Amino acid sequence: MTNKIKIATTSLAGCFGCHMSFLDMDERLVDLADIIEFDRSPFTDIEHCSPCDIGLIEGGVCNSENIHVLREFRKNCKTLIAVGACAINGGLPALRNFVKLEDCLLEAYRDGIGVDNPQIPNDPELPLLLDKVRPIHEIVKVDYFMPGCPPSADVFLAFLTALIEGRDPSLPYKLIHYD
After folding, report:
1. What digits encode the pLDDT tens for the residues 101-139?
2. Which of 26, 39, 78, 113 has the fewest CB within 10 Å, making it most exposed?
3. What is the pLDDT of residues 14-56, one digit of tens each?
4. In Å, how far from its chain's centre is CA 132?
5. pTM (two decimals)
């Protein structure tokens, strides 16, 4: 196949667990390599996404850099998939939404147990934190949502296979249940 489907991935505020689950496809990734090409991903170490067919993005939006990466990624992806709880609803990083940002910073950097050198980072190189962690659909248009924390390798494979075959992904209960 000469015209491979180009897939890119990126991560925002999260644990990188969705990427690890994606890599859990193991040898099935080798089979996919006949029909897909990776752009930005853990395989390529490419920092900026070029135009691609499918973009998989994990993590919530917690700072100005996340917004920049997300908008650039969206601009370059024909189809954008929010992967996992953090991308879909903010996930665990959004737990800080219940605490004022100032209080969160004070606890983490000044008043917390085990803080030896109390100082809140204030370097212009650091991205500005948002007041709240946001799901990605509040910032850009999302075409599909892949549930899970993280979604299993089987979910990734079923989802991508459907898209590659030109079908809307429909995941059976056995792939998305959590009981």
Report:
1. 999 999 999 999 999 999 999 899 999 999 999 999 999
2. 113
3. 999 999 999 999 899 888 888 988 887 766 766 778 899 999 9
4. 17
5. 0.90
Q: Which helix (H) or strand (E) holds 11?
A: strand 5-11
What tokens were used for 44?
A: 């390529």
The number of folded domains in the chain is 1
67 domain-assigned: yes
Q: Which two structure tokens, joined as six digits, stand for 126? A: 């650091």
Question: Alpha-carbon distance 133 to 129, whole Å?
Answer: 9
- Residue 110, helix vs strand vs coil: helix
Residue range(s) defining the domain that contains residue 76 = 5-97+129-173
Name residue, tokens 């993590």: 59
**Residue 117 three-state SS:** coil
Q: Quick one: tokens of 125?
A: 């190189």
